[in-house]
Design goal:
Length: 115
């Protein structure tokens, strides 16, 4: 069973930065993609950023230019660097990984942007 463990969430002021980390229990080359999703209260879970095994990335329009997804193959980890944070970025952030026939989720980490 694949395990994904997120860390790095917390409370930050508007305009601040946070870096989320996701540690996978197996070699991340086994996954077609790894990504970050978020879910705000009363809203559906949405894609934030995704990175393929080849290193290609894609971002939600709302975070493009502010967030950066990266992977460290040696550490079996994926990161989400978030800058210029806004109150509307407040949500639980989930790490996701996909294989051909299955996908996996982390337990989520809370990010709160508030003054």
């Amino acid at each position: 069973q694949v395990q994904l463990v997120e860390s790095g969430g917390g409370l930050v002021q508007p305009g601040g930065s946070l870096r989320l980390s996701c540690a996978a229990s197996e070699n991340i080359f086994n996954f077609l993609t790894m990504g970050w999703y978020r879910q705000a209260p009363g809203k559906q879970r949405e894609l934030v950023a995704i990175i393929t095994s080849g290193g290609m990335t894609n971002y939600a329009a709302s975070v493009k230019g502010r967030f950066t997804i990266a992977r460290d193959n040696a550490k079996n980890a994926v990161y989400l660097q978030m800058t210029s944070l806004k109150p509307e970025d407040t949500a639980v952030y989930y790490c996701n990984s996909k294989k051909v026939v299955r996908e996996y989720w982390g337990q989520g980490t809370q990010v709160t942007v508030s003054s």
